[in-house]
């Protein structure tokens, strides 16, 4: 199936070797590293003190005065984003803001200008707000694979027709705590790193990069210039370890082969590989196995280089920075080198060096054995390049391979097929209990447990060897996943498990691990809690789910606050529509550090309730193609008829975002609305808009019974809406006597009030950022 060609038209980058793409490429081809000793005295605590740092004046010189008060992460991102938009020749008035999206990759929770943690999606909100982008907005946090992952998701948004232009990129600053964590893992080199040869550790770096992604036909129509084509991408899960890559390279191989299939190419078509090449023994040796497995006897003939010895490992930005380098490699038909490559005599002849890394280029191999690889040592090389694969691997076991080619010209194409997709299994875990039966009982009786932390005492949902090392959030997510899997009655052969997708949704990840790690660094930066550090990355919980259930299909992590679950569901549907998986497990989890409240619950939409009770929970659901569910004899709860998201800023108002998220939806048959009301004053605006737009729907919200569990609450809304469609029950608003808006007859006041539900709406909310709406119907 030939899909609509999607191309890159603009580039932006700022990192240790350049403040823009021109300077960046000049340094890459000259072989001049930007890794230097860290001047900040705080880092004197560590033995390793080299990093790729961005001079502050490179940032401030490119920002208008109005951006001076922004935090460093937002400033880095804005510099690169504006470069990309300018480079694409996009005039603001020529782009409909509602069809201008952004997909941003980040690894770390970053501080605001006052030094406090800010929501993960905040940086994307700032960039989108400054550039007038009100279309699809996604924060992807797959650690060091996030930047490449973002480019792939941007292509998806073009193929689904949701956007005409998408800014895809990544950003991460150099943070002391993260540096301490890598030092604690003994993963840092004491000098400039040397990927693929000495491989004695990595250097951290900082920066940002963006690429403008558009459909080719639109670019040509507006007189733009396609720089490269995003031919395809592949995702996979190692399902092996929290921080170490699978030493067999299985996950990396799967990602590359899925990318080839998506792009419609074979390994023989690849002319250059932009490697992950961190410089650690575990990564570099694994990556060599991937290359040899994928390319076989041709492995030594495919030039592969890592640019991390130029600028350090920029974590969430790395994949985007390397995608920019790959586009420039295609444009200039030149492979940037792996600098710092040790061409010592013992590494020649293709021999394996002590750490398992092959040393010299293929041309020097004289002994029989596996083909030595060509790492483009130390000097840039001109060569014919038509197809580049850019690979990234991450903590949590996330892998991504991105295929970029020279623009292949206009051609006939097919739209992404419409595939009926259903929800066939639910796994709710909250203070109300475990599984569908407990939730159904709580709905029937009106039992409240808002803010109560689900108790897993005496229960294990994973092998004890894994369970005892897990934090609470991973345990909640795994419990929810197991319950959803059992509820769906999925019995698949082992081979099929390799292709099951997992999409994790969270607003903030593990509060427990983040707090524990920060405390350990504050106490002694040379003795950080490495166990907590391995779970600080937001995709760690999704990785734990994959590892426990043995799932290795396409996987990613979405961090858009309370809207994360519906965006994750969107990604799951797109994965199925594009033929990359038949079954995807969507898991949402968040937790609170607040103590359990004295009151058992609150009443959303009630006039006399003015507070939200935070909670902890996890909800998983099995999403599969209707055909797959039918063929295996599964029983679906509901069909996913449509998903909509509207993005904006605080100035837009949440009411306006809700209205936009309902645009184009067929709501005539909607009998139930599961809203995002949480007991606060904002409930009134939501109710007003919903009653106007969906006159036949009764409104309710389960948050009064569970507490506000952020991403998990969005998923809970989807779960109870699905149960209502199949089983005709819905949570009542306990104690609702005087609503803020309308009469009580507009709300669900008894579980049976909704009656038979033909179609239901489920809402999700990241206030001031994204509002989501999902329409479910009878399967």
From TrEMBL:
Signal peptide: none
Record keywords, A-Z: Acyltransferase, Transferase
GO molecular function: 3-oxoacyl-[acyl-carrier-protein] synthase activity
Biological process per Gene Ontology, one example term: fatty acid biosynthetic process
PROSITE patterns attached to this UniProt entry: KS3_2
Broad EC category: transferase
This enzyme's EC code(s): 2.3.1.179
One Pfam short name: Ketoacyl-synt_C
Family the UniProt entry places it in: Belongs to the thiolase-like superfamily. Beta-ketoacyl-ACP synthases family.
PANTHER family, sorted: 3-OXOACYL-[ACYL-CARRIER-PROTEIN] SYNTHASE, MITOCHONDRIAL (PTHR11712:SF336), POLYKETIDE SYNTHASE-RELATED (PTHR11712)
Name by which UniProt lists this protein: 3-oxoacyl-[acyl-carrier-protein] synthase 2
Gene from which the chain derives: fabF1
